[in-house]
Amino acid sequence: MSQKIALVTGGNKGIGFAIVRALCKELQNGIVYLTSRNEERGKAAVEELKKEGLNPHFHQLDIDSSESIDRLRDFLKSTHGGLDILVNNAAIAFKQKDTTSFDVQAKVSIATNYTATLNVCHALFPLMRSHGRVCHVASMSGPRVYKKLSPKLQEAFKQAKTEDDVNKLMADFVASAEKGTLSEERWVQNAYGTSKAGVITITRIQAAAISADTSRQDILINCCCPGYVDTDMTSHKGTKTPDEGAITPVYCALLPSAGPNGKHLSNKSVVETW
Ligand code: NDP
């Protein structure tokens, strides 16, 4: 079997770190890249896994930086000629007690969790080989936000057919937060959940697009919720360990050919979205 090349964003801690650990165990013959925006934290994480007898490789990646994304793309292309598994795990969440104004929270959350994730896809999808697997780590907060949107906005999410359609929804949300018209337009004041609703919507569109690409076969793109996990993001209130949180993302990263495509999964099962 050919050597699989896997890559995890935001791998230096939390669920991303646990995903790297699990993929290293699963892909005995493969290479797993633990990427991190901060080189020191990333390399320290690699050393920690080496102490467990695992052998992840390190590459710097700040998903908010197009230069960083391009450097990684060029490195993967010249070193491996392609990519087999991509786990888009990196994301941010403002704490409830954070006093940053909501318009800024909206802009920053959409920029990292949605737009930067999409930018990674734009750079790395052309490298994905046949039988490749992509997993975006989304969240059930996406469907929770969706349920509270106006029927008109729900319909817009449901009907989104292109990346531009989703980009427009995300931009409208940020603009509405900036104008202070969120409740009037019946958006939900939840920047994180809205960004994840965007990720879930784009997953369906990306999966359809890549399936139509006849130059490559059997590439599956899904997203998933890891559950409520004990990490810095949840101020360690989550009930699952990071290793437990990694189970569904890793399941999506290793799906067999008959697996779901363009879906949102939780506890290794497809959840209904829109
Ligand atoms: P953490 O905050 O513990 O870890 C987030 C990781 O993302 C860190 O490695 C962080 O790097 C990295 N990151 C943030 N911004 C960037 C960036 N611009 N470029 C590269 N890396 C970045 O979060 P979790 O482990 O809890 O979350 C992982 C994923 O799971 C996220 O997508 C999150 O939304 C999702 N999720 C988590 C849940 C939970 O209960 N924990 C529930 C549902 C979904 P750094 O250390 O440098 O900040």
Characterize this entry briefly:
Helices cover 47% and strands 15% of the residues.
Characterise this structure.
The chain is globular, with a radius of gyration of 18 Å. With 274 residues, it is α/β, with parallel strands linked by helices. It is 47% helix and 15% strand. Strand 1, helix 1 and strand 2 form a beta-alpha-beta unit. Helix 5 crosses helix 8. Bound molecules: NADPH dihydro-nicotinamide-adenine-dinucleotide phosphate (NDP).
Q: Provide the residue-averaged pLDDT.
A: 98
The helix/strand class is alpha/beta
Share of residues in strands: 15-25%
Indicate the low-confidence ranges by residue numbers. Answer: none
Helix content: 40-55%
Number of helices: 10
Number of strand segments = 8
Compute the separation of the termini in Å: 38 Å
Major sheet strand order: 3-2-1-4-5-6-7-8
Radius of gyration: 18 Å
Largest sheet properties: 8 strands, mixed
Element string (H = helix, E = strand): EHEHEHEHEHHHHEHHEE
| Chemical compounds bound to the protein | NADPH dihydro-nicotinamide-adenine-dinucleotide phosphate
- Basic shape: globular
Highlighted features:
binds NADPH dihydro-nicotinamide-adenine-dinucleotide phosphate; alpha/beta; 8 strands; single chain; 274 residues; 8-stranded mixed beta sheet
Secondary-structure blueprint of this entry?
Elements: E1 5-8, H1 14-26, E2 31-36, H2 39-51, E3 57-60, H3 66-80, E4 83-88, H4 102-124, E5 128-137, H5 141-148, H6 151-159, H7 163-179, H8 191-211, E6 220-225, H9 242-245, H10 247-253, E7 264-266, E8 269-271
Parallel strand pairs: 1-2, 1-4, 2-3, 4-5, 5-6, 6-7
Antiparallel strand pairs: 7-8
The chain binds NADPH dihydro-nicotinamide-adenine-dinucleotide phosphate.
